Amino acid sequence: GAGVSQSPRYKVAKRGQDVALRCDPISGHVSLFWYQQALGQGPEFLTYFQNEAQLDKSGLPSDRFFAERPEGSVSTLKIQRTQQEDSAVYLCASTFEGGGAWADTQYFGPGTRLTVL
Amino acid sequence: AQTVTQSQPEMSVQEAETVTLSCTYDTSESDYYLFWYKQPPSRQMILVIRQEAYKQQNATENRFSVNFQKAAKSFSLKISDSQLGDAAMYFCAYTTSGTYKYIFGTGTRLKVLA
């Protein structure tokens, strides 16, 4: 694709609901990152995939957060039993490289703004 | 722990003038990369410039250049001939080899005055 896309762009959830956020990386990109960006803050790393393998999930804030990328392309970030503190913009980014991802340019999606009431 | 600090929440610059955004970081690693990302209002974050720690020469991309002071752990961004389209949040970021984690600062909002 032309760029990284994310859906939905906006999501309002009632506290306790489950949500699923989708990321479509640039075609052929090996690496995929998820970030959480609270209002007025910089992005905070959540998790990293190299193809379908989740190589780092150290940033996931709790076991309510789960991410997958089963076929090595589209990724889904799922949040169970949402809480108000989960309200944030969730950003996805992809890079072409795999093992050298730390050195490569990240291409970001527009983000999903999640509001938990 | 590795940290990235941007001490200027907001900066203003007159169109066509030059502005410098500050960033300091803390790390014990010797092999790392530093980045400046731009996040325009309601638009996607894009890479502005990056610097490899092992390179002494400061990176330059058109009107954007960095002043990388490794010993001082400082990585400032200079924008020359500022344009209205430069108005955005600017984030300094760090990553190191052997990890996939990027650490971002809290950002500096740049306003460009016509």
Could you please describe the fold and organization of this structure?
Chain A is mostly beta strands. In chain A, 0% of the residues lie in helices and 47% in strands. Chain A contains no helices and 11 strands. In chain A, strands 2, 4, 5, 6, 9, 10 and 11 form a 7-stranded mixed β-sheet that branches. A 4-stranded antiparallel β-sheet of chain A has the order 1-3-8-7, with no helix packed on it. Chain A is globular. The relative contact order of chain A is 0.33. The model of chain A has no long low-confidence stretch (mean pLDDT 92). With 114 residues, chain B is an all-beta fold. Chain B contains no helices and 12 strands. Chain B has strands spanning 3-5, 10-14, 19-21, 24-26, 32-39, 46-52, 60-61, 64-69, 74-79, 88-96, 103-104, 108-113. In chain B, the strands form 3 sheets. In chain B, strands 2, 5, 6, 10, 11 and 12 form a 6-stranded mixed β-sheet that branches. In chain B, a hairpin with a 6-residue loop joins strand 5 and strand 6. Chain B is globular and about 45 Å long. The mean pLDDT of chain B is 93. The interface between A and B is medium-sized, with 28 and 25 residues.
